[in-house]
Every structure is written in structure tokens, then in C-alpha cells.
Write a structure and sequence with these properties.
169 residues; alpha/beta; Rossmann fold; two-stranded parallel sheet; 5 helices; 28% helix; 31% strand
Length: 169
């Protein structure tokens, strides 16, 4: 199952242009590829990755990987729209792979942040999105614990939640 773009993808997509010009970019958890394709408008050096091989895009380098497991390079910008919803035992396993970020929702994002520095070039940045259902304080705590700074680029209220777009540096 491939994650179809929704409000979170579109929010993140709005900010790609500001950080992508002539950069080496990784779109982590590429899903439909909407973010990698947007980045490709501003730079030639785009790699996409996803745990699901079905997410491979034509004309964009693809690495099948569970987060950074098979990622060896360093990047100027890493874009990540992670699965970030808290576990719902009623959701089927295939769907949960694209939406569930762990028991409390932030665990995948926390793993990403823990390994992020090893995959960023000097002055590298990351663009991420997550939901108020993930508990903002848990994400911000993981960011600070791993010695990153962050800037809130945008917040978007949608039914049942607020989606946050952060820049990590």
C-alpha cells in the first residue's frame, strides 16, 4: 500500500522550494513520490527511499530502506513525512505501515531524529511534518535531546488535529 498525498504532504510540499535549490536531497518514506518530484524541480540530485519497494519512482534514484538502514550517503536536505499516528489496533497491518508511527505515534520520528545527524552534510537540514495527535512535546524533546534546533514553519488545523511542519538544523 502506498500512502496517498493528503494535507500533511501538501503542507510539506509548500516548503521544499525554500530549501532545495541545487542541494543533494533525500526524500525519506517517499510514498507516492510527491515530495521527491517537487524537489526535482529545484535540483538534479534527488534520492527517494521507502520501506515499500512499490514506491520506486521513474527517473529518481530509489533505495529500499527502513529509515536509514540502507542509506549510506549524506545530504543537504532530508524530507520526511513519517507515519505519525498513534497505534490503533483496529487498523489493518498494511494500512498501519503508512500511518502508524508507533504505540504513541512519535517512535518512528524519534528513531529518524536519532540517526539524522549521521546522514546530513555540514549545515544540512531536515523538513518534517507530524500531528498534534503525536504529542508535539515528545517530538520537540527528541529534537533537543539529539542536539538539533528547530523552527516551526507552519501549522495547519484540519479536522481532529493540527499538522506541524518543522525545519530541523
Amino acid at each position: 500500500m502506498i500512502y496517498e498525498p493528503a494535507e500533511d504532504s501538501l503542507l510539506l510540499k509548500k516548503h521544499i522550494r525554500d530549501y532545495s535549490k541545487n542541494k543533494k536531497i533525500l526524500d525519506m518514506g517517499t510514498g507516492s513520490g510527491i515530495l521527491a518530484l517537487e524537489a526535482k524541480k529545484y535540483t538534479k540530485d534527488v534520492t527517494s527511499s521507502d520501506i515499500n519497494k512499490e514506491c520506486e519512482l521513474k527517473d529518481i534514484r530509489f533505495i529500499q530502506s527502513d529509515l536509514f538502514e540502507n542509506i549510506k550517503d549524506r545530504y543537504d536536505l532530508i524530507i520526511f513525512n513519517p507515519p505519525y499516528l498513534p497505534e490503533d489496533r483496529r487498523e489493518d497491518k498494511e494500512s498501519a505501515l503508512t500511518t502508524t508511527g508507533g504505540k504513541k505515534g512519535y517512535e518512528i520520528l524519534e528513531r529518524f531524529i536519532l540517526e539524522l545527524r549521521d546522514h546530513l552534510n555540514d549545515n544540512g537540514k531536515a523538513l518534517i511534518v507530524f500531528s498534534s495527535l503525536t504529542k508535539r512535546e515528545n517530538v520537540e524533546s527528541a529534537i533537543r535531546k539529539n542536539k538539533f534546533y528547530y523552527r516551526v514553519l507552519e501549522e495547519k488545523k484540519v479536522p481532529f488535529e493540527t499538522i506541524y511542519c518543522y525545519l530541523l538544523f
